[in-house]
Amino acid sequence: MTDAAAAQRRFGTGPLSRVAAVIYRLIVVELLLLAGVLPGLVPALLLARDPSNIALYAVCAVPVGPALSAALYAIARHCPDITDLNPAVDFWRGYRTNLGGVLRLWLPMLAGLAVVAVNLAYFDAAGVPTWWAVLLVLIAVAATVWGGTALVITSLFAFRARDVARLAAHFLTRTPSTSLGVLALAVVAAGITAYTSEAVLALAGSVLALLLLRTSRPMTSAIEEEFTQ
User: Fold this and answer.
1) Number of helices (H), then strands (E), in the chain
2) Distances 157 to 73, 168, 198 between C-alpha atoms, Å
3) pLDDT (tens digit, 9 = 90+) per residue, 208-227?
4) What's the CA gap between 53 and 185, in Å, rounded?
5) Alpha carbon separation from 97 to 66, 211, 215 (Å, rounded)
6) 55, 118 Cβ separation under 8 angstroms
7) CA 128, 132, 134, 137 torsion: positive or negative?
8) b/e per residue, 30-63, with b = 16+ CB within 10 A?
């Protein structure tokens, strides 16, 4: 009997064992994700929820991009072999590999969303037409969906940052189910933050990353077939 077969016999090969392996990976990834976002989470919890702190909230969100990318990478690396229980190795490999590419996209997105948020927060004082607020909201929605899809692409594929940006823009309308799924997850995340706190959102990070991967499957499948063959 080979070592792999012996290990599978020891751990089991049934549905319960497979579910346990997935849960174990999600728990480990969640702990590492919390460690990754902690430098921004702690100051964010101390900030007052006031429009004057929007720029500071954006700064606090900087560590979220690389940590979430590493979580996506680690969860996507889960294989049918239930004895492959090394999610921490996958997480840190994804973090190191994707750090530069993620920041090239994440930082401009955060900066743009912060500018839009400030304009909306002080909209009445600006004295601009109402249609301008609608336009800003549409821009924020498009940027959020684009950022979510770009994060998935740069986490799973080795493309240049400008190519990731183009692919994310291309798939906004190419795979509407993915775009709607990303938007729905963004709304859920915003709701959790608004009605509870950033800490609760961070505790649900690995589950949200799993859902983001699932909802992005039409897009990632198309990329694999058309751009990686």
Assistant:
1) 12, 0
2) 10, 12, 29
3) 999 999 999 999 999 999 98
4) 24
5) 10, 22, 23
6) yes
7) negative
8) bebbbebbeebbeebeeeeeeeeebebbbebbeb
Beta strands in the chain (DSSP E): none
Q: Is the dihedral of CA 34, 35, 40, 45 positive or negative?
A: positive
The angle at the Cα of 72, spanning 101 to 150, to the nearest 5 degrees, equals 45
Residues 5 and 2: their CA atoms lie apart, in Å, by: 5
pLDDT tens digits for range 107-132: 999 999 999 999 888 887 767 678 88
Range of the domain at 103: 3-227
Under DSSP, the state recorded for 1 is: -
**Which residue blocks in 47-129 are alpha helix, DSSP H?**
54-60, 64-76, 87-121, 123-126
Spatial distance between the Cα atoms of 90 and 32, rounded to a whole number of angstroms: 11
DSSP state of 51: G
DSSP state of 175: -
pTM recorded for the entire structure: 0.89
Query: How many residues in total does the chain contain?
Result: 229
86: confidence class by pLDDT, cuts 50, 70, 90? confident
Provide the 3-class DSSP secondary structure of residue 129.
coil
- What's the number of domains the chain is made of? 1
